[in-house]
Design brief:
The complex is a heterodimer of chains A (180) and B (249).
Chain A (H helix, E strand, L loop, with lengths): L1 E9 L5 H8 L8 E3 L8 E3 L3 E8 L2 E9 L5 H7 L3 E9 L6 H11 L1 H4 L2 E7 L6 H17 L6 E3 L5 H18 L3
Parallel strand pairs in A: 1-5, 1-6, 6-7, 7-8
Antiparallel strand pairs in A: 2-3, 4-5
Chain B lengths: L1 E9 L12 H14 L3 E7 L2 E8 L1 H12 L4 E11 L11 E3 L6 H9 L9 H8 L18 E5 L12 H12 L2 E2 H7 L5 H13 L3 E5 L2 H5 L11 H14 L3
Parallel strand pairs in B: 2-5
Antiparallel strand pairs in B: 1-3, 1-4, 2-3, 6-7, 6-8
The chains are: A alpha/beta (180), B alpha+beta (249).
Chain lengths: 180, 249
Amino acid sequence: MDYKKLAITGEVGAGKSQLVKTLSEINPLETEAESSVDIGKSYTTVGIDYGRINLSEDTALGLYGVPGQARYSFVWEIVNSSLWGLLIIVRYGESPNYENLEHLLEFFKPNESGTSCIVAISHCENADHDELRALTIELSSILEQANINAPILKLDPRDKESSLSILHMFNVINMHSKNI
Amino acid sequence: MKSILYISSAASRPNGAALPVDLAKIYRHARHHNARYNIRGILSYRSGYYIQVIQGDNQAIDNLYSKIANDNRHTNLEMIFDVAISEYTFENRSMKLIQNTKIDSEFNQFFDSNRHLVSELSYEKKILLGKFAHLRRSDAHLPSSYKGKAVKLIKWPNYTVLDQTTTVVELCSLIMQSERAYEFIVDSELYGTQSQINAVLDELKNQEILVVSDAPREAHKTPVKAETTPVKFYSKMKAFLSLRRSNGL
């Protein structure tokens, strides 16, 4: 079985669980609990979201939604093998958590391991053009500081076309880096 | 009315990196604040430095500059220009974020009207200003055509300001793989119309990730790289995506 993993990470409410739900061909495994603080929704993921796409009889992509906070780095260990790509979702309208991002990039080291990396901005359907550009400048700077070459995309994790475009981008990057 | 241009350094993170922390938040606040006080201006960031121009009523500008000077998200504030003006230079927008001031026509127009002040600046201020503006008029960016040129991408782009379509993604992938002659890209008819291609290349240049050079003869003839053996994960993913799209998802 040719099985690879897509690690999907980001802050609470970024859209990780939704993306797994949109893409998965199986009913995704969700680990949720009632939120104890106001995060804009009633439930939040407390473990990993798991989904799967079967590409053929013997080829599959596992979708792993993992928390983006550094205190959950023990969860990152679970996905850090046979990694097809690392997706970082950042929510428009919120400042990136620089500390968490730095820990994440330090842990996964996509620049050293050759893992393809994409940064996607969610909740930006009605974004102000210049404010969105300002956010991408922040993100580009973080990536440049970490010596990571990653595209930045818009993402609506509720939308199938938008979600598939992420897979398309990973495939293009992997082809370019010969990580196929 | 007056116009102030200053340059500052981004504050360093605990790991020593100078990053534009909260730039999006700063921009959002500036836009709302400036609209209330009829202030216009531009804001840009480059390699650890900010540049900002603010224009408006003298008192409003002085008050704002005082607040900006006390913001701990930047350091080493250097006032470059503080000049009287009779009208706004920038369009009716309370704050414009500029990716690349060196090729922004509005900023260049503002800078050209104050170019005579550059000679009065200290050497250190000229160095700072040179990060954001062409100090010599002869160095100023001229509109250029891609005809007869080859293009190569050196980094994956920020797609949020491009059309995030399959065509644009494939074009960027093509010129990321290797340098391509402009005519090859246009003549292939795979990557949109000539004006669409030009728009993409212009934005990639704006992001300073596109290298444009004189096209060697070989660049015209290099074929698109053939795909590898079909049993690889890449090919299966490609087939999967094609099937989903053709089935209307």
